[in-house]
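Our preliminary data section would be incomplete without showing what the modeling component actually yields. Below, a chain of 122 amino acids is followed by its predicted structure, encoded as tokens that our downstream tools consume directly.
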Amino acid sequence: MIKPKLIISDEDYDRLHAMIEKQDYVPSHDLLIDELERAKIVPKAKLPNNVVRMNSTVTFTMLSSQKTFALKLVYPHETTESGTLSVLTPVGSALIGLSQGQEIEWPLDNNRKTIVHIDSIS
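Predicted structure:
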């Protein structure tokens, strides 16, 4: 499956890179770095409303299980609230920069994969 195009605001891009640089390395950083490096960076004011950004609530469906989730994409230190998803989780880093209606293949455990479909963004 070809990875979908991503759009990220310059503000989110800069803050995410700064966060990664401040933290001790963990393997989940690689997933987020890969997503950031292939994203188109635009000024925050030009980011379309239908694109997943930091602190947006994303409703998405994992097609393998047909389970739908509505979670707020946050920085790791903000995951203390229920209903939040860290950008450093595999699904969190997969969501950043996607647009409503897009799908991405994402790894699960034990060499399994799923397709994540973006239903809506608010």
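The beta strands are 7-9, 40-42, 57-62, 67-74, 84-86, 103-107, 113-121. The longest helix spans residues 10-22. Preliminary results of this kind motivate Aim 1 of the renewal.
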